[in-house]
């Protein structure tokens, strides 16, 4: 490791830290500060450079360079996806059609990252201060790296020929929350927080950006269903993360990784046990959380 490197490993723990010194200057409106939101229509001049063709003044979403990047070239690229025009919109209040539009942007940016030669593309969303967001305006982030994170490499080395996600979607497991013909939503064993839900395609596939063109519509429908169940269970303002888990570059990853969406409510904060051990203290057993979410009636909650 050379002096000045911005990505450094804690080798024994198989983790890495990305050092972005400008991140301490990020503006925030989630801690009581009054700021001009850079993501609102009319404030486009306050954001980083557009990374796609100019969508014009009536844009529905914008993909921009992060002004406070966690990683810069030659190591990688850090993008922001402004998902919607409306500053106060919440994902728990979106219809499936709107969610589909956002997922299509996620999919396009994952594809763009691999097309541009990056070895690993992380697409994720932080919603709420407890989930790591600094701005309220609905947005997601894309971190594209020239080398896959050490934790991802290590995980991949340990994967064997059988896929855990395939086993889940094939079995009538008590941890299943909802299903469509093409997708299964389930609470994983080893969930990191209460009510964590993962949504996996029924047929083994390595990467979201390689999914069929009609996949985002079906994924949006089941994600909308799960969000409604979470809203009925946890309330409309519960902080959460959404993470797209796709295969990094390489044929072994393509063969063994089953892509999925992770939806992680953040009602329980990570503390000393989590930092000390890498494990998690969770208040709900997976099968109990799945039963609660299955019983949550979104239609009744909306009425
Ligand atoms: Zn805004
Ligand atoms: Zn699989």
Detailed description of the structure:
The chain is α+β, with helices and mostly antiparallel strands. The chain has helices at residues 96-115, 150-158, 164-170, 215-234, 251-256, 272-277, 286-295, 298-302; strands spanning 7-10, 15-18, 62-65, 76-82, 120-127, 139-145, 176-179, 183-186, 197-201, 240-245, 260-265. The protein has a nine-stranded antiparallel sheet with strand order 3-4-6-5-10-11-9-8-7, sandwiched between helices. A two-stranded antiparallel sheet has the order 1-2. It starts with 6 loop residues before the first strand and ends with a helix. The mean pLDDT is 92. Residues 37, 39-40, 87, 137 line the site of one zinc ion.
| Shape verdict | globular
Number of helices: 8
Overall pLDDT score = 92
Strand order of the largest sheet: 3-4-6-5-10-11-9-8-7
What's the alpha carbon Rg, rounded to whole Å?
A: 19 Å
Q: Which strand-content bin applies to the residues?
A: 15-25%
CATH topology: HIT family, subunit A
Structural class label: alpha+beta
CATH architecture field: 2-Layer Sandwich
In the CATH hierarchy, what is the class? Alpha Beta
Number of strands: 11
Question: In total, how many domains does the architecture comprise?
Answer: 1
CATH homologous superfamily identity: HIT-like
């Amino acid at each position: 490791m050379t002096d000045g490197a911005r990505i450094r490993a804690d080798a024994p723990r198989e983790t890495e830290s990305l050092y972005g010194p400008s991140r301490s200057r990020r503006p925030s409106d989630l801690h009581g500060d009054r700021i001009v939101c850079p993501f609102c229509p009319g404030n486009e001049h306050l954001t980083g450079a557009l990374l796609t063709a100019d969508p014009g003044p009536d844009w529905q979403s914008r993909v921009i360079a992060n002004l406070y990047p966690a990683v810069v070239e030659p190591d990688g690229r850090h993008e922001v996806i402004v998902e919607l025009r409306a500053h106060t919109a919440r994902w728990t209040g979106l219809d499936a059609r709107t969610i589909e539009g956002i997922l299509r942007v996620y999919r396009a940016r994952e594809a763009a990252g691999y097309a541009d030669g990056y070895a690993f593309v992380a697409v994720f969303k932080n919603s709420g201060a407890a989930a790591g967001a600094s701005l309220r305006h609905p947005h997601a982030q894309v971190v594209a790296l020239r080398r896959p994170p050490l934790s991802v490499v290590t995980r991949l080395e340990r994967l064997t020929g059988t896929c855990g996600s395939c086993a889940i979607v094939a079995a009538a497991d008590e941890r299943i929350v909802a299903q469509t013909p093409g997708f299964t939503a389930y609470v994983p064993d080893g969930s990191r927080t209460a009510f964590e839900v993962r949504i996996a395609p029924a047929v083994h596939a390595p990467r979201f950006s390689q999914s069929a063109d009609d996949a985002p519509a079906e994924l949006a429908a089941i994600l909308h269903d799960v969000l409604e169940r979470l809203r009925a269970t946890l309330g409309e303002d519960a902080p959460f993360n959404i993470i797209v888990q796709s295969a990094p570059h390489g044929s072994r990853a393509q063969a063994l990784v089953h892509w999925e969406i992770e939806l992680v409510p953040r009602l329980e904060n990570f503390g000393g046990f989590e930092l000390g051990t890498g494990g998690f203290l969770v208040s709900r057993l997976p099968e109990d959380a799945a039963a609660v979410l299955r019983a949550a009636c979104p239609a009744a909650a909306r009425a």
